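Researcher: I'm preparing a figure for a lab meeting and need a structural model of a single chain. I don't have an experimental structure, so a prediction will have to do for now. The sequence is pasted below. Please return the structure as tokens so I can convert it later.
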Amino acid sequence: MSGKRILMLVGDFVEDYEAMVPYQMLLMVGHQVDTCCPDKVAGDTVKTAIHDFEGDQTYSEKVGHNFAITADFDAAIEDDYDALVIPGGRAPEYLRLDQRVLRLVHKYNDAGKPIAAICHGPQILAAAGILGNRSVSCYPAVSPEVTLNGGKYIETSATFDNAHVDGNLITAPAWPAHPAWIASLLKVLEQTGNS
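Model: Understood. Here is the structure written out token by token.
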């Protein structure tokens, strides 16, 4: 498969592993990946958050790294990429309030281009209103948003390592699913490139 152009949508306190690891995996297999964030330009950064399970009733959150923005947001959302990647973490809860982000999701969905969202990333898909009669995996705490927006929540495996594909939507519950999630995205990318 020849290299594709992929846009990754991030924001402050995006989940560290869910941004950095897929970014590096996609570069490793020969794709061009641009990262963008509303109101940021190439050369800016966003802070990441590290989420982990340490015996509490929910995950803990710690400040992670500075993650580089490689493309001006306004230019990137007008450009023509082959796929859109939406990591989870804290960022989706505020990114979904930005109408430019919702228009971006509609643009890729209407074109049938792959949209890969993980963990809390499907909050943006729900806010964009594209989940009607679609099945989606996500972090379990996001499942009410999926179902309230007409989607079907796909249960996670006990180890959170499963991914789910429904047409152009490639979703997963959390970073342990990276191998399955990215492999599924690559397969969908290859299929859309051959059609």
